[in-house]
Structure formats: structure tokens, C-alpha cells
Amino acid sequence: MKIGAFGNNIGSKVEFTIFFMGFALYISIFVFENHITVMQLKIKRNITFAMALSAVLSPLGAFAVDSQPEAPVLSLDECLSIALDENPTIRIADLEVKRMDYSKKEVIGQFLPSIDFGGSYSRTLAKQTMYMDFGALGGFGGGAGEGESGAEEAQSRASDKKASGMKVGLDNSYSVGFQASMPLIAPQLWKNLSISDTQIARALEQSRSSKLDLVNQVKSAYYAYMLAFASKEVMKESYDMARLTYETYSKQFAVGAASDYDVLRTSVAMKNIEPELLQADIAIKQARLQLQILMGVDASFEFRPAGALSDYEGSMTVPAAGVAEDLCSNPTLRLNTIDLELQRKALATQKLAYVPTLALTANYNWTSMNNGAPFKNLLWSPYSMIGLQLSVPIFSGGQRYSRVKQAQVQLTELELQRENLERSVNMQVTLAVDNIRINVEQIRSCVESVGQAERAHDIMTRSFDLGAASYLDLRDSELALTRARLAYYQAIYNYLVANSDLELLLGTANVATAQK
Asked: Which DSSP helix (H) or strand (E) runs through 364?
């Protein structure tokens, strides 16, 4: 019985121990699961917060990237308009026209009366002494007796050694008043007015010439800017083809299908193009800086050209046959014509120096004189006058004659320069027309050459992919295509520059439209 009771007690204790251990294990598992759940919730919450934060910040990041403005695109007309408004050379030319207008007003003012106000003061240090010989006047009028008595009186005064003269004048003298004059007959002045009109015309033509020259320079710089971009695109395409070939050989080398020499050769060919890409970037920067200087804008203002050089291909034409004969708008010849007219008028002005001049003069003054202190006991007395002043040139040591001869020599020099300018301009126009014709033919040839080079490159690329062509054949086709494209863009640039030069020589560029 005791043993059975003891065994029952032990069995109940073991059951209790097992139950307690199972309950403890259940509690541990429950706590562990709850801990895992909390951690998962925290992780999920952190992930959710990170996703929400990224969702909020992603648009901001995209906005930050997109907020960087791209360089604006400016057309040729817009660049010309900015240059004609901001370039200092054009401003100087416009100010010169304004200065000539004021010069004409100055000449017109010489026809009007000139009125001046002046004053003078003088202090007498030693007064003049006046001697009177009254005896010398005795013979005039009166009888014989009176003459004898006068002679005797004169002898008595002459014998008087203490006789002295009479002091005349006052200590202080004042004079204030107005003086006026106006030319009545002044042939040289009349001719100067005509010269002023011609000078204004010359300033206007000089301004037009400056604008035409600026338009030509801006066009050339803009075309050079477009050529730099086109050249970079061609070199970039060549670099991409070389890089693709290098990557292809690298992959083949990794699987043992190509040699190390092929990889090195394609790598060297790719790296040889990298300096040309860098040079293209430098050419773009230099062309942009040159264009910015002509436009009169800051160097920090970056922009891109509108369109491409190939867009001008359809508008290329050869000038008419008689274009070289129409030089009436050439700025250099027009300036020379105005200079000839100015010199002829200057010669006529020098000849008018022999003609007499007549002027009207008038004045109204107040005078005062006193003794003692300068500003005491002043008594002003007005007086006025009006008159004519005639000047007749007679002799000036040959100065007028020399001036006339100088003017004649200068006129002969300008006439000789005119002949030389006409020949020079005719030659330049002929060369410009010939260059345009050559460039048009070259562009047609380059178009065919580019098409053939593209087809040859496509054929060689497919042959290379099939293993029927070597890398050297592929590289030769790539170089031929690159050279053909560069020659094509260079021919278009040469045509545009030659056409711009022809517009400058003929003076046919529409400056007013470009300025608007």
C-alpha cells in the first residue's frame, strides 16, 4: 500500500512537472511569436515609411533634376536682332549719326546773331600830359594887331621855363555792355551748311555699312556654331560604332572566340576618337564665345542653334549671271561716292575764301570814370552804335592758294581710289559667285558620297556580323562614312559663308528686317 501510494505520488509529481514544462514552453513560444510579430510590424512600418518617404521625395528629386533649365534655342534671325541691338559697334555708329546732326545745327547757328556781354576795368597809373600851343592859332581869323599881340604872348610863354602841360584823364575807367554781330554775306558759311548735310549722309551710310558687316560676321559665326555641333554629332556616331565593335570583341574574347589582339586593336581605335570628341567640344565653345561677342551678350549666356546645316540644302541656288554688274549698293563704293562729293564741296569752299564777306555789328555799352576809390562816385553813361563790317581778302601770303591746291590733290586721290575700288569689288564679287557655284556642285557630290558611304557601311556591317568581312574592312567603311559626312557639312558651311560674303559685297542684306 505504501509502495503504491508512493508510486502514485511520484507519478502525480512527474505529471505535474511535465505539465509545468509544457506550459513554460507554450509561454516561451507565445512570447517569441509576439516578439517576432512586433519586429515584423516594426520592419513593415519602417518599410512603409521608407516607401512613403521615397514616394514624396521622388517627385522632388525629379523636380530638382528637371528644374535645371536647358540651354535655349536661338534662330539666326534672333541672333541678328540681338546683335543689332546690343553690339557696341552699332551703337557707336548710331551715335556718330547723332553727332553729325549736332554738327549741322552748329553750322546753322552761325547764321543767327551772336550776342555777347562783357565788361572791362582799368586803373590809370600815370595820367597823360597834354600841351596846348595857343600862339599857333593866332594866325587864324582876327586883325593884324591881334596877330602881333598873340605872337608876343607866345614868345613870353615859350621863354617861361617853368611852363608845364595839363594832366588829363581820371583814375578809374569802367565799361560794360552788349555786342552783337550777324553775317549777311558769307559764302563759305553757306557752303559749310551743304557740307554738313553730306556729312550726315556719310554717317548714315557708315552706320549701314557697319550693320551689313555685323550681319555678315554674325551669320558666319552662327554657321560655324552649327558646323561645330554637326561635326560633334558625326564624331559621336563614329565613337559609338567603335565602342560597339570593342564591346563585341570583348564579349567574344571572354568566351574564347576572339584574340587579345582584336580587343586591343578595337580599344585603340575607340580611344583615338576620344581626343577628337574633346576637340569638337572645344570648337563648340569657341564658336559660341565668338558669336556671343558679336551679339554683345555675356559669356555665361548659353544657347543652341536652331535646326541643322542640312536644313539649308534645299534652299541653295546659284546667283544670276549679271549679279556682278549691280554694285550700286556696295557699302565701300557708296562711301567713296560720298567722300568724292564731300571733297568737291571742300574744294569749292576753299575757292570761296577769295570772296568778300559782309557782317552786321551792333553794341550797347555803359561807361563810367572817377578819381580816388574804385567804387565810389560812379556815374554811368550809356552809348550805342550799329554798323556794317566789310572784309575783302587781298593778300595772305599764298595761304588760300595752297589750301585750294591741297583740296584738288585730295580730290584726285579719291578719284584714283575709286577706280581701284571698282576693280577690287568686281573681282571679289566674281570670286564669291564662283565659290558659290563650286560649293553647290560639291554639296551635290557630297550628298551622293554620303549615300554611297552609308550603303557601303551597312553592307560591311552585315558582312562583319556574318564573319565574311574583317575588322579592317569594317573600320575602313566607318572612316569613309565619317569623312563623307564631315565633307558634306563643310561644303554646306562654305556655301553659306560665301553667300553671306556675296550679300555683303552687293549690300543686299535686309538690315531693317533683321533688326526687328
From this structure: strand 357-370
